[in-house]
Amino acid sequence: MDRAQLEHIERRLLRERDRVRRSIGRFQEQAKTARDASDSDLSSYSFHMADQGTDAMEREKSFLFASKEGRYLYRVEGALRRLYSNPQEFGLCHSCKQEIPFERLDALPHARYCLECKRREEQEAAA
C-alpha cells in the first residue's frame, strides 16, 4: 500500500473514531438527562406498568447501542495502533499475510482479514 492510500485510511479511521466518540457522548448525555429527570420526580417509579416497561426498554436500547459503539471504537483504535506502530504491515491479512485490497480497507478501514479469510472464519464459527 502506498503512502497516499495509508494517509487516506488514517483520515478515515480518525473520522470514524471522532464520530463514534460523539455518539457515545450522546448516549452518556441521554443517560444523565434521564437520571436527572427521574431524580426530580417525587418517586423514581412510574405510575403505570406500561410506562415502567417503556422506560426499561429505552434504557436497554441505549445501553445496547452504546455497547455496540464501544466495541466498534475498540476496533477502530486497534487499527490506528496497527497503522502507527507498523505502517509497512498495515493492510496485510492477519491470516494469510496477503495484501487486503484497498477497496476493502476503504469500505471497512479497520479490517484485519482479506475477504476470503473472513469468509472462512465466519463459516468455521457457524459450524
Summary keywords:
127 residues; mainly alpha; elongated; 4 helices; 73% helix
Describe the 3D structure.
This protein is mainly alpha-helical. It has a domain at 3-89. Helices cover 73% and strands 0% of the residues. The longest helix has 38 residues, at 3-40.
Concise structural overview:
With 127 residues, the chain is mainly α.
Q: Level of helix content?
A: over 70%
Q: What is the string of helix and strand elements? A: HHHH
Distance between the termini: 34 Å
Query: Cα-atom Rg, whole angstroms?
Result: 21 Å
- The secondary structure category is mainly alpha
Count the E strands: 0
Determine the strand fraction and express it as a percent band: under 5%
Nearest-integer average pLDDT: 87
How is the topology of this model organized?
Elements: H1 3-40, H2 49-85, H3 102-107, H4 115-126
